[in-house]
Amino acid sequence: MFIGWRNYLTVLVEFILYFITTAVAERCYDCDSRNHKGCAEIFSGSALIRNCAKSQLDPEQDRCMKMQGNNIVMRSCVKQGSPAASMDDGRCIKDHNDITTCVCSGYLCNEAAPPFSASHSVVSVVLLGPFFRWWFIIP
């Protein structure tokens, strides 16, 4: 009876640790060109951000928005000479037709990790090793 209890406990702990180590999580960030702490790598490496700065605007619109999956990038634009057009360092970025880009902002999500990576296997073996040893050594 006691041995069966240990086996069930070991299997339960194995499944719990397996799901913890192979969990797929997606983290999303609010980013803009002035403040993107915590998401600098995602923000600077995003093709959506780079393409947003280059996109042509409809003359009657002052915004553009691009979506790709859960990622949303918006570009707010103001006319040249507006105080809102200057960046933190005082520079203004001029666009075609004398439109100045004020800020390029985004709600960006990292890609989900693959569920079966090598690191998950190593963590599972290290964490479950004592339980397997306990399981097989005790009769």
UniProtKB/TrEMBL annotation:
Taxonomic superkingdom: Eukaryota
GO biological process, one term: sleep
Entry coiled-coil feature ranges: none
The keyword Cell membrane belongs to this UniProt entry's keyword annotation: no
Signal peptide: 1-25
Keyword Transferase: no
Keywords: Glycoprotein, Signal
Protein name as it appears in the record: Protein quiver
Organism: Hypsibius exemplaris
